[in-house]
Design brief:
This protein is of the alpha/beta class. The protein contains five helices and six strands. It has a six-stranded mixed beta sheet with strand order 3-2-4-1-5-6, with helices on both faces. The radius of gyration is 15 Å and the shape is globular.
Length: 166
Amino acid sequence: MKQLLILRHAKSSWSHPGLPDIERPLNKRGERVAPLMAGWIYQQFPQLSLILSSPANRALTTAHSVMNAYSHRPKLEVEHSLFHASAHQILQVIIDYAETQDCIMTVGHNPGLESFVSSLDADFCDPIPTAALVVIDCDISDWSELKQSECQVHSLYLPRQLFSKP
């Protein structure tokens, strides 16, 4: 059994219109929520051992928040193909990097994350808002076996549901 955590980056800033999309930082709300989610994730999933992140500033900052919440510091891999990745690209990155880990996280962007999650669990049709976490249980022994018939969304956690004022 493997567990896949899908985290959409925290809320980003649009206050610098000339800034390339990949460089957009978190806004004030994102800066506040990312560490809250990170601490909550650590308490719920202490076994997390690998974080795969898009190189976008907003995703990488979110991934660093998660990594820094852990005393054992999960390994962080920054994969350029996760920037605005398709479902197929996300799947390929997981297969390429996850190896023997039992609990991994991918930090990235919509619409790719939503498409990827619904490709693994056809019953999942919820939007994934910023800083939301999707937990997927995968009845597999190796990540190369990752496919729809083996996966089920366990939960969708939203910051506004976990914290009184995100």
